[in-house]
Design a protein that fits this description.
Layout lengths: L17 H32 L3 E10 L2 E9 L4 H8 L4 E11 L7 E15 L4 E8 L11 E5 L2 H8 L1 E9 L9 E9 L6 H7 L8 E7 L7
Antiparallel strand pairs: 1-2, 2-7, 3-4, 3-8, 4-5, 5-6, 8-9
Length: about 220
């Protein structure tokens, strides 16, 4: 009679040490999720690192009014530069509010000044044009649009990022013995982009170019 070969089949099962194995697996998965989250956050952190910097903000109080000088530093995001190269103008909105401080109530805005800085590339001449003019609801400042031409984008940006002795309020708007502050804001105005660009730019950090600061107005007069 021939021999019969028996084959034993078995099904793996968790032994008593299964809880420790499970903890190890969960630890590895947790570490994997942390690494993945850091990778996803990297573009956001990079976008925040290139936000504009207000390098200088000087406010002068003269006999005839309040003057503001400032310097804003930033590099254009690649998507914004690409749009400019394709002939899409970019408008930067600059605003300054004169605010009276009140200890007994919320502060009161007494004056508002704003201007548009429009940067555009002209393909035919291969030159850059920076136009400076009043924004909507502007109460003071420039009453007409001034234009400058530049041979390079870097030169145009350098001029756009500097403002010298911009009159933001008249002297008669100041009350004696009252304390005032100036709220300054600078941003890329996405509302003035063509409609398709507005839709694509919503929620995209690459299109966010904005900086603001509040500074106390001194009581001394500058000659």
């Amino acid at each position: 009679m021939g021999s019969v070969t028996k084959m034993d089949f078995f099904t793996p099962c968790w032994k008593s040490e299964s809880p420790s194995v499970l903890r190890t697996v969960m630890t590895l998965l947790t570490r994997l999720w942390v690494v993945l989250a850091l990778c996803l956050m990297t573009p956001v952190l990079w976008a925040q690192s290139v936000m504009p910097e207000l390098a200088a903000l000087q406010i002068e109080r003269n006999d005839d009014g309040i003057y503001l000088s400032t310097s804003v530093r930033f590099d254009l995001p690649q998507v914004v530069e690409d749009a400019l190269q394709k002939g899409i103008p970019m408008v930067f909105l600059v605003e300054a509010d004169l605010v009276r401080e009140r200890w007994y109530w919320i502060d009161r805005k007494t004056s508002h000044a704003s201007r548009n800085l429009r940067l555009a590339f002209q393909p035919l001449t291969r030159r850059w044009r920076l136009s400076v003019g009043p924004a909507a609801n502007n109460n003071t400042g420039l009453g007409l649009t001034l234009g400058q031409y530049f041979d390079s984008l870097s030169d145009a940006l350098s001029a756009l990022q500097r403002m010298s002795r911009w009159k933001i309020a008249d002297a008669n708007e100041l009350e004696p013995d009252a304390n005032y502050s100036v709220e300054f804001r600078f941003r890329l105005d996405l509302g003035q982009l063509p409609r398709p660009f507005q839709i694509g730019a919503v929620g995209q950090s690459e299109w966010t170019i904005a900086v603001s600061r509040r500074q106390r107005l001194g009581t001394e007069l500058h000659k």
